[in-house]
Amino acid sequence: MKKYNYHTHTFRCGHAEGTAREYVEAAIRGGYQILGFSDHVPYPFLDGHVSHMRMTLAQTRGYFDELLQLKEAYKNQIEIHIGFEAEYDMRTFPRLKAFLDDYPCEYLIQGQHFLDVEHEQIYSGMRMTDPDILRAYADRLIACMESGYFLYVAHPDLPDFRGSDEVYDNIMRPVCQAAKALDMPLEINLLGLVQGRVYPTERFFKMAAEEGCRAVIGVDAHAPEMLNNEALFQKGIQFARACGVRLMGTLSIPKRA
């Protein structure tokens, strides 16, 4: 199995620490062959909203300039890719895509932290019992997969749903079925494991295994040392085995048209 991680943040999101170079060097020490940076995407908010969880539009050029330099400097030691973690909303995504078309963005992963524009919506990972909120989240994941713009779905089991397992299964199983049909990988999120968050959840990934889905391990690195933590990486592998879900031995980024 090739050791890779496509889920890495930088200081620009405002809640990660360390320099991009420190992440690269930690990944090399940790035995990674591929490192993808996917900081929270800058969003062209129409109302001028300033986010506290993502880089600004003005920081975008610096993000690419720095990472392109590191990609060249470390090309003989590790394969580096540059992308973003992004929410998907079919009404506003075209505006975001038009902005990103001006940059050498190689890939997107979906991290659906909000169902709509962040400051107008509740957090998708909140504790909930309302099946309509969970259904809206599931519908957004499926629409994202069908869009063809994303490499994989990050922490698909983000919602802390406290309703019945039957309701959860009825709403979230179609997500797994869509992932299987569209060959879309689902992420086992190591940040959730290391911080004791509600995800990754066995009930979701056992369902994913039943539907024949494939999974990837995403470090969701917010500090460089997470990329040099073999015990944590092995914990992700053990979680996958316990759920019976298949891990992808490698993950390739489709060539841009």
Structure description:
By secondary structure, the protein is of the alpha/beta class. It has a single domain (4-247), classed as TIM Barrel, CATH 3.20.20. Strand 3 (79-86), helix 3 and strand 4 form a beta-alpha-beta unit. 37% of the residues lie in helices and 15% in strands. It starts with a strand and ends in a 10-residue tail after the last strand. It has helices at residues 20-29, 60-73, 93-100, 131-147, 165-182, 190-195, 202-210, 230-243, and strands at residues 4-5, 34-40, 79-86, 107-110, 127-128, 152-153, 160-161, 186-189, 214-218, 246-247. The strands form 3 sheets. Strands 1-2-3-4-6 form a 5-stranded parallel beta sheet. The longest helix has 18 residues, at 165-182. It contains 8 helices and 10 strands.
Count of folded domains:
1
* Shape call: globular
Q: What portion of residues is helical? A: 25-40%
* Total beta strands: 10
User: How do the helices and strands follow one another from N- to C-terminus?
Assistant: EHEHEHEEHEEHEHHEHE
By CATH reckoning, the class would read Alpha Beta
| CATH homologous superfamily identity | Metal-dependent hydrolases
| Gross CATH architecture | Alpha-Beta Barrel
**Secondary-structure content class:** alpha/beta
Identify low-pLDDT runs.
none
Strand content: 5-15%
Distance between the termini: 28 Å
The major beta sheet can be summarized as: 5 strands, parallel
Distinctive features:
257 residues, alpha/beta, TIM Barrel, five-stranded parallel beta sheet, three-stranded parallel beta sheet, 8 helices, 15% strand
